[in-house]
Design brief:
The complex is a heterodimer of chains A (1067) and B (220). Chain A contains 32 helices and 42 strands. Helix content of chain A is 27%, strand content 18%. The longest helix of chain B is centred in the first third of the chain and has 29 residues, at 9-37. Classes of the chains: A alpha/beta (1067), B mainly alpha (220).
Chain lengths: 1067, 220
């Protein structure tokens, strides 16, 4: 037998390292104030030209400007009130937060006599279940016309964790925050449970009989001419088939598609280019050396962002060859903007001018469009240098190695220009592929407008709404809400409206029939990803709240005998398989294929074929000439989808509400974001209330000042200000910006005004908690600095990577970790976009509670993993660096030797273990932690869970009680499970089988975990990378997590190499 | 008139009270420490009444049914598992299928309702014990659960305190047995101490036993 873990685990005696007592060693005693000396040493080693505190990196404007209020407020280590007991009001607010995020009572209570506990075994154990072991099922989640492939972990029939399906071409194992947090909504006690007609509960059978009567009558009378459906775009083959079959029966009925995340402009442009065909562009960022984003947030905006982010990140690693270069022109500060090498702040309306100027200079097929476009929007003179540099760079790149992407908020004209530039640069066929669009039908606001016309003209008797909450998410002037409101529409009684949704929301209040929908994890469905690949989504659990699957609801309109969703789906695919089957085999052949489809989660060979037509740029010129640029006015108002709650459909999800916004780090709120200069002009301060008026509508909004926004613009996130009847988590959070939106200009328009109003608003932000004074924390530098470091860079590198001096930096005894596993992590800042998928993954995996806005304001957020966002440079136009920080598992951990009860101790593999049952809550460890990664349960955040919420908990992780400290464990429950499996099989743990939750979900593979004793593992190679450094290295804590310096690839024409190039973070 | 203020016997009294002053807290604390370790608190030697009068003496003892016939997940799951009702019925559909003892079992089976067994071995929720690794590394059922084949109603045999766990984790060799006797109720190590130690050493090597004592081994 090969020597396994040859070191005896935990030798019993003389092993003081696992009990970090004050050091008694035979070494020369460390000097009295070792830390002080270490800091002095660091200071002495620091370069005199090194930027001091507040001059290199900064996290907020107050910090940058060093206002006295800020210094006063953050001078103590914790914000004011962090250690106060809850007041009466706070307690009540906390109780209101009983959304789906607080858990299991009294799990760790000690009593001398165990309570009478019952064990309920299965009557009949399902053959695939081994009680105690998890099962993984491939499934999918459809969000606004795109289906993600998911892999869901179930424990004895309860789904407890959502991950990306590694076999899915878009997900490739990754999942964004939405997919993962979707699990919480499954168990949400606020979900609708009652099928009702008006206010009376009804059986589903009654509805089915009603529908059947309606259909048979309508089919005979007028072919369903007075029936309308408003649904999400059908990327599902099954739903498309159901639609077609309904239309066969009721040929005069109409289906309209609407979802808030419209690809309207993009599809309008491609339809024009491809002669009316539904075509979509698929990009390949792995081949692009130079990328120009015209307001495109392609790293974060759905649907293809997971695949794009991975391709893009692979080009940001110097080990993979020369870096790509990203130019971004945008008004807001997006995640993609944060990754840019050069970011141009322009108003959204000016993006057209930028696109036109680039197209003009590139020439070719782009030039004719550009001529028409430049008549619509003239490029500002001061932007010319930037545009010329971009053009030169695009031209200098090899043909087909460039990519220009237009954003979904931009008009079709910008999309047409982007396609034209790509064609002129030979990108088509290389970095851009045109494929048949997964959604064939027209979607978007034009569809809603047609529906509204129909209703106004009295052509509608029955309206079936399956689209998510249109009455909330539509722009305020669409008019649908007025038509459905009996108080405002006298003819409302002539129309019958049916709506299905997960919650009783803004739309359900005006409908005649409300049908609680089955959660996608409760029913069978299918759907296409952006590249056309079909995922079969299987249910993980029986409907918890009597939900009705959407497919079954639609199937009622076929007036056929009832068939469950599973049968509908299977029969559809059986038909498909019969149509395409080339080999003989018949039914048995289908059976085996179906098994494979369901178990793998994808239907192989369903990716969209390439588009047959070639783009005709002449046809697109009408788009450009027909485009009316928005009114130039005082302020440009920008609407954006929220990074957390999207269009509002995740507003009742407490995990997402408490996820710090990716850029502003704000929780439980939205705000009118303005640039520092605009704020100054308008006399606004962060937290001021202001009146935002636009298009005759007025709204009082709280203001937040965000560096890097274009001046004279206001950016507001949609999805807040929800007033749904039973959505208690979403209620009262933020303001509803849809009121201001107009269908004519749904994403940006000029002519808004912002005037200071009386009063102020208190925001909760996580970024200003935990101040790390003047120390190099997040590092980034141009790639040239890394290859040829200047003297200053050498100083910085010495400080973060240099040798540690014994007794000054290194005053704890060493422990021999050379045998067995030596767990470590590496986080590549070059790859990290800050998308926060890891934060949600950690929350789900580790039973982390949600604490609410007021608790976050007191710095009591519980997320073990935080993503620090640093700005760098001038406050008007800074760069951004994202840095995920969780417990770094110091080998010489400062938290351990201050714990009076040994509740935090070291394992023999280098894990900094937290023993909840020993913790008495002194919080000394948190005080002594230089990284501020420990989280304390100030209140019993997990109390008062409903029975469905308890089902969400990961049974492998303790649910912590009040008064207990907690922190990142490196997912020790995963290590132990994999270890036991490996030890049972008498082998070593393989690198591939062990992934932490954050690593598993990371779309860009920025987080890597493994054993540092294995030279072959990726984590070891990254630890030895020249970019690797340890946080607060000079303290001698020897973190097991290495961060890798972010490298930038600036264009020398725009950013000449500076003498003091390396900017060193102070925080 | 003069004489000692206190008579001689008061010396004894003061000595005794001084001793009592020390002894009472010592006995009190010691008593409490003994109390929490006592079978009363650890729940040992306390047979539980179960919803069904299931007798391990008959099944495991007389009939010599292997533990794993019912507790079939023990080799690959953290939990040994309570058998589902179908496992009971796999025999009792044929034998004793009219017995009044089994009315509740049949009821549960046909009503598809779980039988609410009372938990006997109840670890705190912050402890994660894994059966699979122990069974695979040569720790037998009887080592922790005792002579189940002699229990009419199952009771907790071992104290299940952390000290008891650590005793074995620090020195597992005396508690190892050959894999073929893993479920045996009657296997005992060789009576010769040297022989037993040699067997333990050999098994530890053969099964690659590396018991761990880091906190996160059991607490997560």
């Amino acid at each position: 037998m090969p020597p396994m873990n040859t070191k005896r685990d935990g030798a019993p005696s003389q092993d003081t390292s696992s009990f970090a007592l004050p050091v008694v060693s035979d070494r020369p005693a460390a000097s009295a104030d070792a830390v002080g000396e270490a800091l002095e040493h660091a200071a002495a080693n620091a370069s005199p030209t090194e930027p001091g505190y507040g001059r290199g990196y900064w996290r907020s404007l107050e910090e940058k400007l060093g206002t006295s209020e800020y210094l006063e407020e953050t001078r103590p280590e914790f914000p004011a009130g962090a250690d106060l007991p809850p007041s009466g009001v706070a307690r009540r607010e906390f109780m209101q937060l009983l959304g789906a995020s607080m858990a299991l009572a009294g799990a760790t209570a000690c009593s001398t006599r165990p309570s009478d506990e019952r064990i309920l075994p299965y009557t009949k154990t399902p053959p695939e279940v081994t009680p105690g072991n998890p099962l993984h099922y491939a499934s999918g989640m459809t969000l606004a016309g795109h289906t993600s492939g998911l892999l869901i972990t179930a424990r004895e029939g309860r789904p407890i964790k959502i991950e990306g399906n590694p076999q899915h071409p878009v997900n490739q194992g990754a999942a964004g925050p939405w997919e993962q947090a979707f699990l919480l909504s499954l168990y949400d006690p606020n979900r609708a449970r009652v099928l009702r007609q008006g206010k009376s509960p009804r059986a589903l059978r009654v509805l089915a009989e009603d529908v059947s009567a309606l259909v048979s009558k309508a089919a005979a009378a007028d072919g369903g001419a007075r029936l309308r459906f408003l649904g999400e775009p059908t990327n599902s083959p099954l739903m498309g088939d159901l639609r077609n079959r309904i239309l066969k029966k009721l040929p005069n009925a109409r289906f309209y598609s609407y979802t808030a995340m419209t690809q309207d402009a993009e599809s309008e442009a491609t339809r024009a280019l491809f002669g009316g065909q539904a075509v979509s562009a698929v990009y390949d960022f792995s081949k692009a050396d130079v990328v120009l984003s015209l307001d495109a947030d392609f790293l974060e905006s759905r649907p293809a962002n997971l695949a794009y982010a991975r391709q893009f990140a692979d080009r940001r690693d110097p080990k993979n060859g020369p870096l790509n270069r990203l130019y971004v022109a945008e008004a807001r500060y997006s995640v993609t903007g944060g990754m840019a090498d050069h970011r141009l702040r322009v108003k959204s309306a000016e993006v057209l001018a930028v696109a036109a100027a680039v197209a003009q200079a590139i020439g070719g097929p782009a030039a004719s469009l550009a001529g028409a476009a430049s008549a619509k929007a003239q490029l500002r003179g001061d932007l010319n240098a930037w545009v010329q540099a971009v053009v030169a760079d695009l031209r200098a790149a090899n043909p087909g190695r460039t990519l220009v992407v237009a954003g979904e908020r931009q008009p079709a004209a910008v999309h047409a220009l982007a396609h034209a530039i790509n064609a002129a640069l030979g990108a088509a066929g290389s970095t851009v592929r045109y494929v048949q669009a997964p959604i064939a039908e027209p979607t978007g606001l034009s569809q809603v407008r047609a529906l509204v016309e129909d209703i106004k003209a009295g052509r509608v008797d029955t309206l079936v709404i399956t689209s998510w909450n249109p009455l909330y998410s539509l722009p305020g002037d669409t008019g649908l809400a007025e038509l459905l409101d009996p108080a405002k529409n006298p003819n409302r009684t002539k129309m019958s409206v049916l709506y299905t949704g997960l919650y009783e929301d803004e739309t359900s209040q005006f409908v005649d029939w409300f049908v609680p929908a089955a959660h996608p994890l409760e029913t069978w469905s299918d759907g296409r990803a952006v590249d056309g690949t079909v995922a079969i989504a299987q249910p993980l659990i029986q409907p918890l709240f009597n939900g009705v699957p959407e497919s079954e609801l639609l199937a009622m309109f076929l007036d056929e005998p009832y068939r469950p969703a599973y049968q509908l789906l299977r029969e559809y695919w059986q038909g498909q398989a019969a149509g395409t089957a080339t080999t003989a085999g018949g039914a048995s052949d289908f059976e085996s294929r179906w098994e494979v489809w369901v178990s793998e989660g994808i239907v192989a060979g369903t990716a969209s074929p390439a588009a047959t037509a070639t783009p005709d740029f002449g046809a697109a010129s009408a788009l450009v000439t027909g485009y009316t640029p928005p009114a130039a006015g005082e302020l440009e108002l920008n609407f954006v989808h929220d990074y957390k709650v999207f269009d509002g459909r995740f507003a009742n999800n407490a995990w997402l509400q408490e996820l710090p916004d990716l850029i502003t780090k704000m929780v439980w709120d939205n705000a009118a974001l303005v640039s520092p200069k605009t704020a100054q002009d308008k006399g606004l301060e962060p937290g001021s209330l202001a009146e935002l008026s636009y298009g005759g509508q007025k709204l009082t909004v709280p203001v937040w000042v965000t560096p890097g926004l274009a001046d004279d613009t206001v950016t507001v996130a949609l999805g807040y200000g929800r007033s749904g009847l039973h959505e208690s988590v979403a209620k009262g959070v933020g303001f509803n910006a849809n009121v201001l939106r107009r269908a004519a200009a749904p994403w940006f328009d000029g002519g808004a005004t912002l005037t200071k109003a009386r009063g102020s608003h208190k925001f909760s932000l996580t970024q200003t908690h935990w101040r790390m004074e003047g120390r190099p924390v997040a590092l980034d530098m141009p790639i040239s600095e890394l290859t040829r470091p200047s003297v200053e860079t050498q100083h910085v590198l010495h400080r973060v990577q240099g040798e540690l001096k014994p007794t000054i930096h290194d005053n704890l005894p060493d422990f021999d970790y050379s045998n067995g596993y030596k767990w470590g992590m590496a986080i590549d800042l070059s790859r990290c976009t800050g998308c926060s998928a890891c934060v949600v993954a950690c929350q789900a995996e580790n039973n982390i509670p949600v604490v609410g806005k007021e608790q976050v304001a007191r710095s009591r957020e519980m997320q073990w993993l935080r993503i620090d966002r640093y700005f760098e440079g001038p406050e008007s136009d800074p760069k951004m660096v994202m840095q995920p920080v969780m417990c770094v598992h110091c080998e010489k951990a400062p938290c351990e030797y201050v714990c009076p009860v040994n509740a935090t101790v070291h394992s023999d593999e280098g894990l900094n273990d937290m023993v909840y049952n020993r913790c008495v809550g002194t919080r000394y460890c948190s005080n002594n932690c230089p990284y501020k990664v420990r989280r304390f349960n100030y209140l019993h955040y997990t109390a008062d869970k409903t029975s469905t919420e308890k089902m969400l908990m990961n049974p492998d992780v303790t649910v912590r009680n009040r008064g207990v400290m907690e922190k990142c464990t490196y997912c020790v429950q995963r290590i132990e499970r994999v270890r036991i499996n490996a030890r049972v099989e008498k082998r070593l743990i393989q690198e591939k089988e062990l992934m932490t939750a954050c690593q598993q979900t990371c779309p860009t593979q920025a987080i890597v975990f493994g054993s540092l004793n294995d030279k072959q593992q990726r984590v070891t190679q990254l630890h030895e990378d020249e970019r690797a450094y340890k946080l607060l290295h000079e303290l001698g804590t020897r973190p097991r997590t290495a961060h890798l310096i972010r490298v930038r690839n600036p264009n020398p024409a725009l950013e000449p190499a500076k003498s003091a190039a390396a900017t060193e973070g102070s925080h | 008139m003069s004489g000692p203020l206190f008579p001689r016997w008061t010396n004894t009294v003061s000595r005794l009270s001084a001793a009592a002053l020390l002894a009472v807290p010592a006995i009190g604390i010691g008593g409490l420490m003994a109390y929490v370790r006592s079978p009363y608190v650890t729940n040992q030697q306390m047979p539980y009444e179960q919803p069904i009068e299931f007798d391990h003496r008959h099944h495991a003892g007389d009939e010599q049914i292997d533990c794993r016939y019912c507790h079939w997940t023990v080799e690959d799951s953290p939990s040994a598992g309570i058998p589902s009702t179908t496992v009971c019925m796999s025999c009792h559909a044929q034998v004793w299928n009219k017995s009044p003892y089994l009315v509740e079992v049949r009821k549960a089976f046909f009503a598809d309702q779980p039988i609410p067994w009372v938990r006997v071995h109840n670890l705190p929720d912050f402890v994660y014990f894994n059966h699979a690794i122990h069974v695979n590394k040569g720790v037998g059922c009887a080592t922790c659960h005792g002579r189940i084949d002699q229990m009419g109603a199952v009771e907790q045999h071992a104290p299940l305190t952390m000290a008891w766990c650590l005793d074995c984790h620090r020195n597992p060799e005396p508690n190892l047995r050959p894999a073929e006797f893993i479920t045996s109720m009657t296997w005992v190590p060789p009576s010769d101490a040297a022989e037993a130690a040699a067997l333990g050493k050999k098994l530890a090597e053969e099964y690659d036993v590396h018991s761990r004592t880091s906190c996160s081994t059991c607490h997560r």
